[in-house]
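Researcher: Re-running this chain for the archive, since the previous output was lost when a drive failed. Same request as before.
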Amino acid sequence: MAGKPKLHYSNMRGRMESIRWLLAAAGVEFEEQFVEEKEDLEKLRNDGYLLFQQVPMVEIDGMKVVQTRAIGSYIAAKYNLYGKDLKERAWIDMYVEGTKDLMDMIMHHPFQPADTKEKNLALIIERAATRYFPVYEKALKDHGQDYLVGNKLSWADIHLLEAILAVEECKPDILSAFPLLQAFKGRTSNIPTIKKFLQPGSQRKPPEDEKDVAKVLEIYGI
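Model: Regenerated structure tokens:
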């Protein structure tokens, strides 16, 4: 029997959080090996574990998979969260990439200079409300199903719920103009595996704080 997937990354959200979400939603238990010091990253590099010298990296099925998109695609396909055919997969990819653009803005926010943070936060909220969430609201309306693609939970739904909750941390009433997304959030949050992941004590990580930012700068030199 294959062992649990092992996730190599810092003890923070960053680029690994969406992978944690995907595994948790699939009901897959996973282990985490945190990169806590610069030496931990150097060891992974020196041992030849990082194809492009960077994390995230996931050990799964005898492979050491890097690049967030590749990791997500593999896990989604492995656990039947990637549609039933190429057309569904294309729609899932489009939705995931759109959500990722929004999530990247949120991920970079704690690293913005203090004098631009307020402007950056306003931009995140504006983009969510005018560019991204209207697309998903319309998709749910036009599709007429509980999920974005087909009528089955997919990577696209999981990533969207993650994004909704992240934007709500910035603006709690962001969904006030999106009734279908409100209902979507309620449904998907209550899927047993996801509900478990949203409980205190799970492997879900909190938003980054100043200590996390300092640690990232120390380890990764960015």
